[in-house]
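User: Before I run my own analysis I want an independent prediction to cross-check against. Here's the chain; please return only the structure tokens and, at the end, one sentence I can use as a sanity check.
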Amino acid sequence: MGLKFQTFNTNYIILNTVSTEIIPLLPPLQAILNTIAASFIATGYIFIRKQNKAAHKKCMISALAISTLFLASYLYYHLQVGYQPFRGQGAIRPLYFIILFTHVILAAISVPLILTTVWLAIKQKTATHRKLARWTLPIWLYVSVTGVFIYIMAFHIYAI
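Assistant: Structure tokens:
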């Protein structure tokens, strides 16, 4: 009988440790990203109302980039952690779930809306872009703002 040596993949151990350490940081990061995205969306709207297309474009590209970072971190977090129950009780519970339900439905709808609206802008189909953006912008803004509200409710006011 020979000796058997067990090998360890130190890269996996290091990455797994980093992954575990980063998980608690993701919800506050996501709230910050949503707040920044909402700020860019609102500012972009103000700029387009003032006919400042260049500033509008910069704001909306920034909002898209920030929202993409949010979505990546959100998906990663929930793949690692799974479902987190809401701890609030009483009258706040149905209000929370109404907001959560509308947030989730509109978040799912917003992705193709945002991508289509951006595509129309890239293709310089201004009239169609403008028509779709009238729906996209308020939905995107609602999703970003309610995401922060949900975070505050679930992780601060009614935390474990």
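Sanity check: Confidence is low (pLDDT under 50) at residues 11-15.
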